[in-house]
Design brief:
single chain; 173 residues; alpha/beta; 6-stranded mixed sheet; two-stranded parallel sheet; 5 helices; 8 strands; 30% helix
Amino acid sequence: IELEERLSDEIVALVADGKADVGIVAGTTDLTGLDVFPFRTDRFVLAVSTEHPLAKVERISFADVLDADFVGLDRASALQRFLDNKAERLAQRLKLRVQLRSFDAVCRMAEYNVGIGVVPQSTATRNAKTMAIHIVQLTDDWAVRELMICVPQRRTLPSYVRELVDHLRVASG
């Protein structure tokens, strides 16, 4: 198995072009033309430095943090476009100080108090074990996301890839 971390829209393009057999992506990504299976549910949370004023907060809405400096993914990423849209709907604009390529890097910059980051809870929880970050639950409905397994067409895949997809589906259940 060759495993690469990529942004959801990049993963979809690789799977659609036959350059990847399987992808796991956020359900908000356009998956037209691919076979799609539920994988698991994850939440978006804020990763903040333990020195940040929000480190004293357990839950907050996205609207209530829009005055803060943010660290985030590249503006072309699906998540960053999504967050920009959410801010615009609130007649606000994200103050994005740093743009990065991974959620782990967002957590690292949050640890250094460069800004706050919106990341998956699974990433924040893993990084909180080794980084000085505090996790703040986002109360917005959109903070819960469905992760999906996508493949070009399951029936055309080699048997070992179908078995991997079946295993992922069972293991996530």
